[in-house]
Design a protein that fits this description.
This protein is an all-alpha fold. It is globular. It has 5 helices and no strands. α2 packs across α4. The model has no long low-confidence stretch (mean pLDDT 92).
């Protein structure tokens, strides 16, 4: 079986940028958002969040839901971009 590509596509890049925009609009440091996500039961370090925001790490569905909850936005808003959040 061939190894799965780790390249992040356009939707992943959009999610990454949206997370960063919403986090900064709310005045949160990466450390603070990561702590909120962890408090919701999805352990996340600020390094993990940084890698997600830079599109160097995939954001799986569980990460996506927890990050949306921590940012107080509907999960689909992260997929559609900051204009819908």
């Amino acid at each position: 079986m061939a190894a799965r590509s780790l390249e992040i596509g356009p939707a992943g890049i959009r999610v990454a940028r949206t997370i960063e925009i919403l986090r900064t609009e709310r005045g949160l440091a990466q450390r603070e958002l990561a702590a909120r996500v962890t408090a919701l039961g999805r352990p996340m370090s600020n390094t993990m969040l940084s890698r997600i925001e830079r599109a160097q790490r995939r954001c799986d569905i569980d990460d996506l839901v927890a990050i949306a909850q921590a940012l107080h936005v509907p999960t689909p808003a992260l997929l559609h971009g900051p204009a819908t959040a």
